[in-house]
């Protein structure tokens, strides 16, 4: 029988909220907080489709009073296997919905025929959480006794390659390219590919986030992994202008540093209890000219008003929350920090997270953590980490088929559950911890809020919200 499958993943912590998933001929699947960290499967079968093989897949988020908060629907075809919406369902076109007291993040993966280790089932993931714009201030209120404890006790939700959330500069990149982007050990010359295939390759390789910087912050992100480099291919005379510094991954430009900082300033001015850690790294920008420390420091300090001070150096991580707020230190650049990064190629270049959990997370120790200023827990899988894999996948996929999106939900329900339940059993030092993820969402933030509450010894607001 002709059919097409859909895997659904859902995380709920908004009190009283639930999500319904439906397909023709199937009972409605209702998901609430009691089913977090699990998935469900639905299949559109030919007898329940219209004469063209089409059926409507719908998901709806309901609030505590039974009111509709968010509702979306897409068309699935049991004969062709396609899935599409009335408008684009590509990552850039599925921004988080934040209104009143709730935040709904979601994403789709449009599956092909299941080659190269990828699933042949479509996917949808949805997270429904309270607003976390001011979660640091809510957890550690200004003037409270607990505010005297170290900032390093916060577990920071982080974005992997934070600035890779736009393709605005891709056309300029393609015009100016003379060298191949580096993907692992493989160089891929996109200029030799068709323009559509090149666009898909770049998207599948470089795009790790889909929300604006402002929305990432409102969702709850407090650590940004930003990799600055001058726009590749721009003439030498212009390249050294700080206006041409962009987040960069494999020579591919994302958001400009100027725009990133503008959005960061605006958020911090509106949310005065929040503090952000900004990690400036050069990994993944081999072949690009990098701004000097002097240039970066000038750019940062010029961007922020007097009400927002920048703390340069890892020592700021160990200052008390009260001291940082009193000195108006709202951004920390942990320069010189010794980091313990859990990313391992042999474990993260995979389609399932078992190796991350068994080979990395289960082997974490307090002794190893105590040797570092920052311990980085990395959730995201990288299933097509070679140039050949990127091209092959892109040739058979559409713009809504990012391989990073294919593995996200399947990985998150296991890695984030492990982090929430077991990380502090193995990481007992008072040094900083970050949890980095692709396509940042409310589930990642909630795990960090819960762990932060436990480290500070205050009530867990996620559990208070009724989440399990």
Structural write-up:
The chain has helices spanning 135-139, 170-176, 195-206, 213-219, 236-239, 257-270, 293-303, 321-326, 345-348, 354-360, 366-370, 387-395, 403-426, 442-456, 461-464, and strands at residues 3-12, 18-22, 29-31, 39-45, 54-62, 68-77, 83-84, 97-99, 102-109, 122-130, 155-159, 182-183, 186-187, 223-226, 228-230, 245-249, 252-256, 276-280, 309-312, 329-333, 339-341, 374-378, 432-437. It is an alpha/beta fold and 468 residues long. It folds into two domains: 3-130, Sandwich (Immunoglobulin-like), CATH 2.60.40; 135-456, Alpha-Beta Barrel (TIM Barrel), CATH 3.20.20. An eight-stranded parallel β-sheet has the order 19-20-18-14-11-23-22-21. The protein has a five-stranded mixed β-sheet with strand order 4-1-10-9-8, covered by helices on one side. The protein has a five-stranded antiparallel β-sheet with strand order 3-2-5-6-7, with no helix packed on it. Helix 3 crosses helix 12 (387-395), helix 4 (213-219) packs parallel to helix 6 and helix 13 packs parallel to helix 14.
Radius of gyration: 22 Å
**Which stretches are low in confidence, meaning pLDDT under 50 for 5 or more residues running?**
182-188
**Architecture of the largest domain, according to CATH?**
Alpha-Beta Barrel
For CATH, the homologous superfamily of the largest domain is named as: Phosphatidylinositol (PI) phosphodiesterase
The CATH C-level name of the largest domain is: Alpha Beta
Spatial sequence of strands, sheet with the most strands: 19-20-18-14-11-23-22-21
Number of strands: 23
Largest sheet: 8 strands, parallel
Strand content: 25-35%
Number of domains: 2
Terminal Cα separation, in Å? 39 Å
Mean pLDDT equals 88
Shape: globular
